[in-house]
Specification:
Length: about 200
Amino acid sequence: MFKKLAADALGLSDIGKVIEPQDYDKTEADDYVLHEKGEKIYFIIKTKADEYCFTNLALIHVDGDSAVSKKRTLKRYDYKYNTIYNVSLETAGTIDLDVEIKFVIGEKVFSIDINKSYAEKIKDLYKSLISIERIMKENDKHKNYMLDSLDYATKTLSSQGFSQTQSPSESFKEITEYTNSWLNSMSDQYSNEDFGHVFDLYLKN
């Protein structure tokens, strides 16, 4: 009992371990993966309180109140709607027991401690997340270019007026339909929903 209380006080009870693929089905997170939609687990970190499940589509966080409570809250962060940024990795020193991976997804800040025996595996997760961050930054840059182009086109059209061969209502409808179609096309081009190809590159399951 004393060892357990000491571990909780020092924060050692919440140092995570990496779950092997053959044990994914033994985790709580696995129950919430959208297998029917082609969602696939690539990496799971498990502490006594939490599970952090990285899939090709999202981060699934099984959030525990404490290491001694059975209460859990499920939180899902789809990559399509939540940008990953500020990814960093703190490696273990000589006397450290853990490594720490940090990142922000959406507006949520994560800082996860993992036993340093899994350091090599965590390096691969770091490479995956930093690569996803770079892709998302590129997508955001192109989206800004897209909006700037649309603004320029709108101002140019306004200065030139409507077509002389169409009524204003017909011209407006044609422009609106084209703009909507173009925006949807550009949005799809620069929005990634599935990052399985990135995880496949770095994670050797």
